[in-house]
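Session log. Operator J.P. requested a structure for one protein chain; no other inputs attached. Running the standard single-chain path with token output.
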Amino acid sequence: MASELEWRRRWKPDLRACPWQPLEIGGEKYLMKTKFSIDNYEVLLTDLTSYWHEIMEENAMKKRIQKLNPSIEAPVVRILDHIKGSLEKTTKGTTLTVLFKTEGDDEKAKLSIKSELAGMPFLWHFVCSSAEKSMACNHSTVPLMAMVAELTRRQKELINIIVSKDKEIDDYKSQGARTSRKHIETTVFDETTFRNNMVTSKGFDNTVKKLGSAAFNTDGQDLYRQIMTKHAWVTRSPTKDDISDSLDDDESLNAGVGPSLPSWANRVPTSIGRGSSPDKSSPEKSPVKSPIKSPAKSPGSVGSHSAESTPTKDTELMRRQALERRLEQDDAKKQEKPKKKKKKLAF
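Structure written below.
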């Protein structure tokens, strides 16, 4: 399974992950979110009572461009970039208007942008139809509840940090430390007093009067984006990419490990055993040599080996002999220093 960082690099955000942007048109306040690509866009507009939605694909967009701006010839990506910029930052000469029209059971909202493109007048209409009821929940209610919960959690974390800082300052003062300037000294933090002060503060009155219109300032938009991105991660479904990544990881872990390479159990020569180690109770005796190095003592084994000799077996024989010589040298060192703690060989 891919990590969250890898998933974020591949993930393509949808409209749900795009934060709301406040718009004030004709004295009325709206919220709008958009998702632009190189050849299409998706937009959601609300006055917090009703929601209007539009998806515009490339072919339909070309027709609308030709109808509204017949004298302008520009690539669709250039037009989209201009429309997006007009919404994000209203410049001099750019005006926004909203008109509502009821067609049967559908109420349409037409958001018009008048601006200039390359020195020429440019007009664009977002023609939005009534959005599905579920969009209000998925794009506003649930994300806003998640933002409140996350801000509450962060407030508790900050309170814990402040309490810890007060303990640290108290410890410094008990050792004679003092502030260099009297006006920067703070009182001990009390959570109950803090909450009561917030309720009676002027800032609280201003926030209530604005009814959350500042909820989607720069910080609010960033928090909304973080929450919706995390929501997409925790509610994701296993994809083919995740499965393939998992298979790739398994292959990379198993690379070079298989029947073609001997395990550690097979790497230990059969001649190494309890019987091949020297008698540690008699240090004056020389280490017992292996049968491979003593053909006179075990002619049968040598003959058998020479009869079946191959380059691979010769290499294995040399490796085993080198390992045995190293073990014999280690045993000899141990016999010279019997007082030191004996170390075990790890294979």
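Operator note: The first helix runs from residue 4 to 10.
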